[in-house]
Specification:
This protein has helices at residues 11-16, 23-29, 34-47, 246-250, 270-276, 280-303, 333-339; strands at residues 6-10, 58-60, 67-72, 78-87, 90-98, 101-107, 109-113, 117-122, 126-130, 136-139, 144-147, 155-158, 160-166, 172-177, 190-196, 202-209, 213-218, 221-230, 313-318, 324-329. By secondary structure, it is an alpha+beta fold.
Length: 356
């Protein structure tokens, strides 16, 4: 696919944007009851869709073995490591940690073309734990529909039901995303949900819209609502910069703290950088070469009857999910970076192609 359909970020970078509103998790970690924490976790999951209405361009598909690091320990108290662990089917994994919580996920999806629109259904699982508690949450994102694929201006919508489960306490929250409608008298992009304890008693309600703000109220007094999340203001020129938020604008920059990142880091992808510089034809040529090199590596592995093994993640059964296989972070990224021991880890040179 030509870069004209892309935004200048890889999907590894796009997935890291789920952490833009990580302060919600920081606040949740300080709350006393698991049910109130669940309400805040539910709102955190909604915040990951905050910029969808403005982001209609497609991120670059990561190459197999492509990684991305995001070190926000100074500003926000967390760091994240991402890796493309599978190409067929495409699976991107993320692991992030602060001194209060651990959040990780594997993102995969099934897409179906329906004529006038494209429906994308996520299949991967997101996981969250608060340190010092029994809380262990899981959820899968709701489907996204891309409208006007053939003719007209592209626009995106979220719809469906998301079930968040706290496997440690038995609490649940079912979030219902209402599909966009031109005929409804209610707010569009609406999300509502109720937190239930292990005895199936309602404890908290959450409501709002996934592109603006979310509120929380106690089931004992629904009239007293607290605004938990509000989307950050759009940048003045966001329409000219792919609808990027202020966070998205920083993700392809090589700041001093990012220097020394893995050679497979998305910041080092030459096709994205060339596209950023406005050289679209050259970016297309380089993108094709990177993809051809990837196919060549796969053919060599197939000829040797070898299989690809991710560097930073491993697929293991999760007993708390009835043995379902999930990707788990193996550790060691930041220690390897501090020693610059990338060669010892077998990091591939993904970007060594002709850049003309």
């Amino acid at each position: 696919m030509p870069v004209q359909f892309n935004e200048p970020l890889s999907f590894t970078q796009r997935l890291a944007e789920d952490l833009e509103y990580s302060k919600i998790l920081d606040t949740a970690a300080s709350l006393k009851t698991s049910q109130e924490r669940m309400a805040y976790v539910a709102i955190f999951t909604v915040s990951s869709f905050a910029n969808v209405t403005q982001r209609t361009a497609k991120p670059f598909n990561p190459l197999l073995g492509e990684t991305f690091e995001l070190d926000r320990r100074i500003e926000s108290g967390w760091s994240a490591v991402l890796e493309q662990v599978s190409h067929h089917p495409p699976i991107c994994c993320m692991y992030s940690e602060s001194d209060k919580w651990v959040f990780w996920q594997e993102f995969s999806m099934i897409s179906k073309f329906r004529g006038k629109y494209l429906e994308v259904t996520p299949t991967g699982v997101a996981h969250l734990q608060f340190k010092g508690t029994d809380d262990y949450y899981t959820w899968t994102k709701v489907p996204t529909t891309v409208h006007n694929v053939i003719v007209g201006k592209l626009w995106l919508d979220q719809h469906g039901t998301m079930l968040i489960t706290n496997h440690g306490t038995g609490d649940t929250c079912e979030l219902k995303y209402s599909a966009y409608s031109y005929f409804t008298q209610k707010e569009n992009r609406r999300v509502v949900g109720t937190v239930m304890d292990k005895n199936n008693q309602a404890c908290y309600h959450v409501n709002g819209t996934w592109d603006a703000s979310m509120k929380c109220s106690s089931a004992a007094d629904p009239s007293r609502e607290t605004v938990v999340w509000t989307r950050n203001p759009s940048l003045p020129n966001h329409e000219q910069i792919y609808g990027f938020s202020s966070m998205a604008c920083t993700l392809h920059e090589m700041s001093p703290i990012d220097e020394g990142c893995a050679p497979s880091d998305s910041r080092l992808r030459p096709d994205i950088t060339i596209m950023e510089n406005g050289e679209w034809d050259r970016a297309n040529r380089v993108k094709v070469r990177l993809e051809e090199e990837q196919r060549s590596r796969r053919k060599v592995m197939e000829a040797k009857h070898e299989t690809w093994n991710p560097v930073w993640f491993e697929c293991v059964p999760e007993s708390r999910l009835d043995g379902r296989e999930v990707y788990r972070y193996k550790g060691g990224y930041w220690e390897t970076k501090s020693k610059q021991g990338w060669k010892d880890r077998g990091i591939l040179d993904l970007y060594n192609v002709d850049l003309s």
